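[step 3/7] fold_predict: job queued, chain A
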Amino acid sequence: MDGQDSVGKSGVQSVQRAVRLLEVLAAARGPQTMQSLAHELGCSASTAHRIAVTLAHGDLLEFNPLTKRYSLGVGVTKLAQRRAEQVDIASIAQPYMDDLRERVMETTSLWTRTGDSKVCVACSDGTYTIRQYLQIGTRVVMADLTAGTRVLLADDEPDSVTAMVEAWYPDIEHAELEEFLADVERTRDTGLSMLPEEGANRVHPDVSTMAAPILDGRGAIVAALVVAGPVGRLTAEAMSADAEALRTCAREISVALGAQ
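[step 4/7] structure written:
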């Protein structure tokens, strides 16, 4: 146990030093030498170098071989831009989502994609006593195959979607996979995904979902606007009645983000 604790503490310390290294470079007036970084971290140059190499591998650090100095990498900029996009989308979308919630009375949420996961960046709780509860920041692997997931996958190539689903469900039947791919394509064409059937949500089979894409100025899908509720209430008929309201809300948010 002592050995495991030692390894655990060492791992935490490495992460802390990596974060500190990024903070030092962010506060610096220019690129820094390894000796300077090691001094700021309070460790040896070899330890600081190992951390720097790891960060550089993830594009979070850049090394200039001519000056032998380090600076923040393009990966930091990408992360900052992504974070800014999420905050902007959430703040822009919230009033539209609140209006949609009043129309459909079910919980509405906004999800952005991170790799093979999705993150809830905004939410408006439903007005019913029994409703779906979500916390902003909730992260879910897209193996749930819900309507929101289908929207977020709609821009992907079919081969990429196939590989992802087969990785999640190696034993999936060919017919089920083909049906899923066809629905993702329909979602791309119609701008709407509706899953009222019980069990369609592989994680929460008693929850029905419907979703529409949020587009940016380039026409790319940047988020999924989702309406979710119990299968006994958010039925196919209820979804059909609310489909246009969902589409309209998604379109208004997209226009606010610069979509044509």
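[step 5/7] annotate
Residues 74-104 form the longest helix (31 residues).
The two ends are 59 Å apart (CA to CA).
exit 0
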